[in-house]
Amino acid sequence: MNILISSTSGEPIYAQIVTQVRQLILQGELGAGTPLPSIRQLAKELQISVITTKRAYEELEREGLINSIVGKGSFVSGADQEFIKEQRLRILEMKLKEVSEESRQLGLSYAELAEMLKLIYEEEQE
Amino acid sequence: MSDCIRLEHVHKSYGSFAVQDISLGIKEGYITGLIGPNGAGKTTLIQMIMGMVRPDRGDIQLFGGQNKEQESAVKERIGYVSDENIYYEQLTVKQMKKVIAPFYSRWDEDTYVKYQELFRLSPGKKIKDLSKGMKIKFSLAIALSHGADLLIMDEPTSGLDPVFRRELLDLLTEHIQDEKKSILFSTHNTTDLDRIADYIVFVNDGRVVFSEMKEALAEKYLLVKGGKELLDRDTRRLFVGIRESAHGFEGLMGNRAEGERYFKDTAICETPTLEEIMYFSVKGSDLRV
Questions:
Q1: Which of A59, A79, B120, B145 is most buried per CB count within 10 Å?
Q2: A50-62 vs A13-26: helix axis angle to the nearest 10?
Q3: Distance to chain A for B16, nearest Cα, Å
Q4: Is residue A22 located within the same domain as residue A48?
């Protein structure tokens, strides 16, 4: 599991962990049931505070992505495929929002944007 | 979550300088950083916790008991690292270790040898011939070799090079892996050890400015940078401390939500670093005196 913390990005460290672990889970790189390092272990590896790591795990738990069992540690939850798909769609939506905002700022019309997307989408398929 | 150190209304006065009414709890199982400028009272606090200095008033408890009773049993559980040399200068590293080891019932010779090698301490060298960094490493090797539940370190990084400071982070985070051991360190250099600190205690001028979870600080404080036209008598009052220059101002606010309401659209709002919190708090308190 690769987690890279940037100290200059301005994004809080706990949020960086959440984003990266979430991505690894949603992309299927961490399958259901995979054990995560213990809070203290991860804090040590990343040279950050225990409480920061704890906060990240709590956030991931709230999102339903991981389960923590007292005395056993934290595991990627066995959330069903529907749920994970839902989460991925949500992320996609967020990205599209960004794209549409950027297009508006560039003065791109919807038709132009759609054309661009179509080209890219078809290109990827080939 | 229990406290391994508790201070209740502790006072200590040294003529012109006084540590006043300090009440604090240091959490078991976590790393706490004691920060503050030179002369803020960090060392006095640590010396009182260690029992090297008696407070004029107030109460200090270690591991839930009174400091005075069973003092040696309590001391055994503490590993102490100081930037001052607390050893006999004329002895060699090996001789000094032989003097110290019997005091601890849980002394672990294998662990000591491991650290001696890791830190490249030469056993035959006299204490007085060790560099400042080497003395700290020796003191650290001792502190880590007797199964201490609490590590207390007074300015441990002041004589250390950046490479070893990083390695120290690994040693300290390793130390608290079992959730029972705690670390308290003091520093005025907030940029290195604060990475791993869970709690921060900030002292200035003999008083505790705050004692908080480090995670909470980012949500409490706000650093505002903007043009000087934003400052008037009312807005000035919102700041903990302000630095003005010819081209604008920088100021620290203690109420993040309020600060964002006022300045979000007109100025740059950032999360301050610990160093910035320390700088503006000290600056602000100087102005009010």
A1: B145
A2: 40
A3: 37
A4: yes
HEC states along B225-267?
EECHHHCCHHHHCCEEEEEEECCEEEEEECCHHHHHHHHCCCC
Whether residues A32 and A54 share a domain: the answer is yes
pLDDT attached to residue B156: 86
Please list every residue in chain A whose beta carbon sits closer than 8 Å to the beta carbon of residue B198: 49-52
The pLDDT of A98-123, averaged and rounded, is: 91
A67 lies in the same domain as A87: no
Q: Is A11 on the interface with B (CB under 8 A)?
A: no
- With pLDDT > 90 as the criterion, what percentage of chain A qualifies? 51
- Domain match, A89 and A72 both: no
The whole domain housing A99 covers 81-124
Closest to B198 (Cβ–Cβ): which among A12, A47, A51? A51
A71 has a pLDDT exceeding 90: no
- Along chain B (289 residues), what's the average pLDDT of each consecutive run of 10 residues? 88 89 92 90 91 89 72 87 86 94 93 94 92 89 93 87 87 89 88 84 92 90 92 88 91 92 89 90 71
Q: Which helix (H) or strand (E) holds A93?
A: helix A81-106
Co-location of A111 and A56 in the same domain: no
Residues A103, A61 share a domain: no
Residue A63 and residue A17 in one domain: yes
Same-domain status, A93 and A70: no
Check CB contact under 8 Å for B213 and A10: no
**B249 bridge partner residues:** B226, B244
Last residue of a domain, one of A45, A61, A76: A76
Judge whether A78 is closer than 8 Å to chain B, CB to CB: no
Structure tokens belonging to residue A102: 């950027």
